[in-house]
Write a structure and sequence with these properties.
The chain has about 100 residues and is mainly alpha-helical. The protein has one domain. A two-stranded parallel sheet has the order 1-2. The longest helix has 15 residues. The model has no long low-confidence stretch (mean pLDDT about 85).
Length: about 100
């Protein structure tokens, strides 16, 4: 007799971090704490958002927020967060060809 809940499958035990990195994408728009945790989350799992057209969004000051939040990141990390990760997630051609 089952007690409800999820059954334990010992053949598929895996730490949460690799499961997270395979299946979850997180975003940020101006909070720098999220970017400081990028090496725990994985730079490949972070995308930028503007929260437009919400009143809490950062538009039309998006470029200023991007510059301030991402100034300490390497160029490759900035590109991933700003557009490459979203292009990969949605299977878009990121090479322009």
């Amino acid at each position: 007799m089952g007690g409800g809940g999820l059954a334990r499958d010992d053949a598929h035990i895996e730490p949460p971090s690799p499961v997270f990195r395979r299946h979850i994408c997180v975003n940020f728009w101006y909070e720098e704490v999220g970017l400081q945790a990028r090496h725990y989350v994985g730079v490949d799992n972070i995308t930028w958002e503007a929260n437009y057209p919400d009143l809490t969004g950062i538009f039309p000051a998006s470029q200023r927020y991007i510059a301030a939040c991402l100034e300490d990141l390497r160029v490759d990390e900035r590109e991933k967060i700003l557009w490459r990760n979203a292009a990969a997630l949605y299977h878009l051609n990121a090479n322009g060809s």
